[in-house]
Amino acid sequence: MSKPERKGDVRYTYRDYLEWDGPERWELIEGVPYMLASPSPLHQPIVL
């Protein structure tokens, strides 16, 4: 599964999370998937 499809009141587990593939980064908060934004190239040197 490359991208979790939220259907109704579905709660995902860590096991579900491990099956997701693809370039996106996700986090689960109480079973709800949230896509993590990638930092911009300008952000990288500022943080360093």
Descriptive terms for the model:
2 strands; two-stranded antiparallel ribbon; alpha+beta; single chain; 48 residues
Question: How would you explain this protein's 3D organization?
Answer:
It contains two helices and two strands, in the order αββα. A two-stranded antiparallel ribbon has the order 1-2. The chain has about 50 residues and is of the alpha+beta class. It has one domain. It comes from Alicyclobacillus mali (ex Roth et al. 2021).
Concise structural overview:
By secondary structure, the chain is an alpha+beta fold.
Layout of strands and helices, then pairs:
Layout: H1 14-19, E1 25-29, E2 32-36, H2 43-47
Antiparallel strand pairs: 1-2
Helicity level: 10-25%
Report the uncertain regions.
Answer: none
- The backbone outline, from C-alpha atoms, is elongated
**Class by SSE composition:** alpha+beta
The count of domains is 1
Largest sheet features: 2 strands, antiparallel
What is the string of helix and strand elements?
HEEH
With strands numbered from the N-terminus, the spatial order across the biggest sheet is 1-2
Overall pLDDT level: 83
In terms of DSSP E residues, the strand content is 15-25%
User: With helices defined by DSSP (H or I, 4 residues minimum), what is the helix count?
Assistant: 2
Distance between the termini: 34 Å
Number of E-type strands: 2
What is the alpha-carbon Rg in Å? Answer: 14 Å
